[in-house]
Amino acid sequence: MNNTVFMFPGQGSQFVGMGQDFHDEFVFVRELFDMVEELCKRHIRRLCFNGPMEDLTETVNLQPAITAVNLACMEAIIREGVKPSLTAGHSLGEYSALQCSGAISAEDCFKLVFKRGELMHREACANKGTMAAVMGLEIKAVSAIVEQAQSAGVVSVANHNTQNQIVITGSPEGVKQACALAKEQKARAIPLKVSGAWHSALMQGAKEEFAAYLDEFTFSEPECPVVMNVTGEPCSGAAELKEIMAIQLTSPVKWCDSLLGMQESGTEVFVEIGPKNVLTGMVKKVLDDKEKPCVVHNVQDLKSLEAFLKAVV
């Protein structure tokens, strides 16, 4: 489909029961789950379908679990002959986007996200960290706040999600100080339930080891460009994709810039593929432009798949 982006969610979109109806309906989805369980040696389908939520949410389980559901939903769409002109993913979701573009195989995708989850969990245990969502300030103001708060501890921007929703990350002391400064400017600062300071300097140990692991993999030239978190811009070269993914762990996710850039370049249809509808909400907030209307779809179960195909095929 021309002017269409397939978008994939990351951590935070999980729910118990995700992907089960696709798994029950399609042999190829059961084969995907067989693959991820064999590669990760974990009961991914049991966690996805039955929980408990506490175990599903552990980073080492969650990264392959969400990826499996993302790829199951995506494969169901592609088998109906619908393909994107662009792909993008939010943080962890970027690996699903790479797979969708043809840059990496499903097997390599699962290997990479499982290793990523293991390393992030290790660093989170070694370096206590936290995250918070700052609501009501633009990126320039939040960037100034985190710079000022660095005297208290490690803190930086993790996700620039919408014009007025920015997630900060770092040590408990650094994030606490940044939240206090944000509140002084009449913003809301909401602590997030996370087990680590994702996309911060506290992940540096994971970044170096993951970059070395990434070197063992071969990326292919993608069939369509991937809009990258690190740059907020489309990339269509295998070597460049790999290079950018090596620094993704400690770089902010420029999601707002990505969406605005896609709209500016003519993208009109935004399809969120995977559990929940977090990215759908962000698209509607960022691209609330009556002069350039966009169409937003969400595919996370059989019912939404049917509705999407009815709308586009």
From TrEMBL:
UniProt entry keywords in alphabetical sequence: Acyltransferase, Transferase
Q: Which SUPFAM superfamilies match?
A: FabD/lysophospholipase-like (SSF52151), Probable ACP-binding domain of malonyl-CoA ACP transacylase (SSF55048)
Q: Mind telling me which InterPro entries this protein's record contains?
A: Ac_transferase_dom_sf, Acyl_transferase_dom, Acyl_Trfase/lysoPLipase, Mal-CoA-ACP_Trans/PKS_FabD, Malonyl_CoA-ACP_transAc, Malonyl_CoA-ACP_transAc_FabD, Malonyl_transacylase_ACP-bd
Q: What is its EC number?
A: 2.3.1.39
Q: Which reaction does it catalyse?
A: holo-[ACP] + malonyl-CoA = malonyl-[ACP] + CoA
Q: Does the keyword Transferase apply?
A: yes
Q: Which Gene3D superfamilies is this protein grouped with?
A: Malonyl-CoA ACP transacylase, ACP-binding, Malonyl-Coenzyme A Acyl Carrier Protein, domain 2
Residues in Malonyl-CoA:ACP transacylase (MAT) domain copies: 7-301
Q: Which GO terms describe its molecular function?
A: [acyl-carrier-protein] S-malonyltransferase activity
Look up the record and report any one GO term of the cellular component aspect: cytosol
Active site, per annotation: S91, H199
Where along the sequence do coiled-coil regions lie? Answer: none
Q: Give the superkingdom in one word.
A: Bacteria
The keyword Acyltransferase is annotated on this UniProt entry: yes
What does the entry give for GO biological process? Answer: fatty acid biosynthetic process
Q: What is the top EC class of this enzyme, as a single word?
A: transferase
One Pfam family name is Acyl_transf_1
User: What family is this?
Assistant: Belongs to the fabD family.
Q: Which NCBIfam families match?
A: fabD
Listed name of the protein: Malonyl CoA-acyl carrier protein transacylase
